[in-house]
Amino acid sequence: MTRVLVTGAGGMLGRDLLAELRAQPDVTVTAATRSDLDITDATAVATAVAGHDVVINTASWTDVDAAEHHEAVATAVNGTGVAHLARACAATGARLVQISTDYVFPGAARTPYAEDAPPAPINAYGRSKLVGEHAVVRLLPDAGYVVRTAWLYGAYGSNFVATVLSLAEQREHLDVVDDQQGQPTWSHALAGQLVRLVGAALSGRAAPGVYHGTASGRTTWYGLARSVFALHGLDPDRVRPITSDRSPRSAPRPAYSVLGHGRWAAAGLPPLPDWHTTLAAAFASAAPPAPWKVA
């Protein structure tokens, strides 16, 4: 029996991950929400990790713009908290899967970032997550897994897809940024990939280190919004393209957040499917309270 602890279990990815894990035979799951476990508390973390074979950390400070003004607080969660988890796993022999972000890269590339491309974050959120990555690699060289994801959407919590559909009910037209490229990733699909990675890790097929957990292909926020409109039966021409300077944010965003998926093959696993495929699957399969479904 494999004992798995999921931290941040009340979030969008955490909730999908719990469902995937509970469907697996010979797996017992402990769900730790933010109210259950403060990962910045080293003593509480050590107690929570004890008795588990695998820890999957989905707990994170995710407010990118607020991190720009509260970097120390964001780093306490995304960096120091991850270090606490890594030390606890090292002490007990557990494996750690840490969820990270495309924002560790500067966004100046023209081709997909490989897993070993040098990070150079351009905002506080990216810097805070990179601290966490370094902690995993340093403290768990033989049992630490970093999975970078991006442009995550799903049935739970706030995300771009939910926001687009909400605004579609309020406005005739939506102006959406068309000069940032990335890979929209369905949290349900990522949860399944994480479960497969854990299985490959436990069987010795997946080496520790960095993996990129994003959908294949690429688009812009504008392209994603048009696809969301079309799948919801709305006129995609209601979405209009704008440049980033017309939608200023506190934290700068990478212009190019496309990640490569080269390491999955060595673990015997395919990367996630194309973003079009998974977006269509999300709309076809999700039930309320998913934002694209009517109760």
Question: What's the gist of this structure?
Answer:
With about 300 residues, this protein is of the alpha/beta class. It is built from 9 helices and 12 strands. It has helices at about 10-20, 40-50, 65-70, 70-90, 125-140, 160-170, 185-200, 220-230, 275-285; strands at about 1-5, 25-30, 55, 95-100, 145-150, 150-155, 175, 180, 185, 210, 220, 240.
Strand and helix map with partners:
Blueprint: E1 2-7, H1 12-22, E2 27-32, H2 42-49, E3 54-57, H3 64-69, H4 71-92, E4 95-101, H5 124-139, E5 144-149, E6 152-153, H6 160-168, E7 174-177, E8 181-182, E9 185-186, H7 187-202, E10 209-212, E11 219-220, H8 221-231, E12 239-242, H9 275-285
Parallel strand pairs: 1-2, 1-3, 3-4, 4-5, 5-10, 6-9, 7-12
Antiparallel strand pairs: 8-11
Helix pairs in contact: 1-7, 2-4, 4-5, 6-8
Written description of the protein model:
The chain has 295 residues and is an alpha/beta fold. It has a domain at 2-157 and 183-217 and 259-273: NAD(P)-binding Rossmann-like Domain (Rossmann fold), CATH 3.40.50. Helices cover 37% and strands 17% of the residues. It has 9 helices and 12 strands. The chain has helices spanning 12-22, 42-49, 64-69, 71-92, 124-139, 160-168, 187-202, 221-231, 275-285, and strands at 2-7, 27-32, 54-57, 95-101, 144-149, 152-153, 174-177, 181-182, 185-186, 209-212, 219-220, 239-242. The strands form 4 sheets. The chain has a 6-stranded parallel β-sheet, with helices on both faces. A two-stranded parallel sheet has the order 6-9. Helix 2 packs parallel to helix 4 (71-92), helix 4 runs parallel beside helix 5 and helix 6 (160-168) crosses helix 8 (221-231). The longest helix is centred in the N-terminal third of the chain and has 22 residues, at 71-92. The protein is globular, with a radius of gyration of 19 Å.
